[in-house]
Amino acid sequence: MKNVAGFKCVDCGREHRVGEVEYVCASCAGNLDVLYDYDRVREQLTKTQLAGDRRFTMWRYRALLPIEEHSAVPPLTVGWTPTYDCKHLAKRYGIKQLLIKDDGRNPTASFKDRPSALAVVKAQEAGARMITTASSGNAGSALAGMCASVGMPSIIFVPAYAPPAKIAQLQIYGATVVVVEGSYDEAYDLCIEASKHFGWYQRSTGYNPFTREGKKTAAFEIGEQLEWQAPDKVLVAVGDGNIISGLWKGFNDLHRISFIERLPQMIGVQSETASAIVDAANGDGIAREGPAHTVADSINVGKPRDATMAVRAIRESGGSGITVSDDEIITAIPRLARETGVFAEPAAAAAYAGFLKLLESGSLKSDERVLLMITGNGLKDVDTARRAVTEPLRVRPDFGELIRRLGEAHA
After folding, report:
1. 33 with 15: CB under 8 angstroms?
2. Among the residues of 325-388, which ranges form H helices?
3. Exposure check for the chain: N or C terminus, fewer CB within 10 A?
4. What is the residue extent of each domain of the chain?
5. pTM attached to this predicted model
6. Which of 292, 231, 214 lies closest to 266, judged by CA?
7. Are 304 and 188 in contact (CB under 8 A)?
8. Which fold, 83-108+212-386?
9. Which pLDDT tens digit goes with each residue over 128-184?
């Protein structure tokens, strides 16, 4: 980690040297932010070097990642997901550009492959024999998939309401799955307690400082795919807050090494029934634990673990927070799919629901370039997606009946 200068607590501000801490601040147990020597980074990472790099994965930005020079990375192709330019929608909605970054195209079908891949590298560097995380599904399946690719065992804690498809994915990858009869926050606390007791490597968001580092790679890709012209606004669904804080850090990294000239506004989208971070960003800046009862399991968080940095990302960027209802989230799933061809799980579709709400309020300008971060594939939660559509036509194998039923359906 030659380019890592140390760590800084996001709560009390204390700085720590490399090797001095493992997960959290030694003074207040706050989350840590990884600090970099940007002068060294500039020597190793250039636009010319990237232009000639044919390794289209998150590891092309290795100079800005906290891993050892010769550490092996998981063999799965993580990152470099497509960014679509939806010109027809931009014209329809009266904005300059509408972009969609589809991270459902990652190996386990979610954004969480990025931090999980990095966590596996760090676990191997630490000589760990077991790695664990708490998850509503995506982080766990991402970790299980990355572990399977390198032959490392994993144990995943999930709340009982996690979608069956996500639990099945965990089991298919061979993870030991602990279904906790409680909330995500209770599963999280139990996972932390167990890892301390058994000495497992802990990947959980808001505890392991390296998850934010993996997530920031999406911002690097956005910058490069847009030829180093940052969008004006980036909309992303928010749960624990680690994705929005990671994206903000990534854009700041690019700005620090002069790859981009300006920073985007970060727009955090939450369910109106799980809105601790949006409430804080739009209020006094203090995130308070609250209820969490949304259909979007990936953002169904009452006690966000990276709230400080998430609120900071929204406020420092001049962005805002917006809430959407479960009905708006469900409606956004088929609307996004039919307008763009991108099938998003509920939490990912929340970003589109937030975009539509901004349009309705007149908050978007005609000269703005807006990017939606789609964080997970719709096949992760088919049951919820089915709530947004009608039952399919059912017919006997009779052509006459088919003609009649089609006529009825399109009458």
Report:
1. no
2. 326-340, 346-361, 382-386
3. C
4. 1-36, 83-108+212-386
5. 0.96
6. 231
7. no
8. Rossmann fold (3.40.50)
9. 999 999 998 899 999 999 999 999 999 999 999 999 999 999 999 999 999 999 999
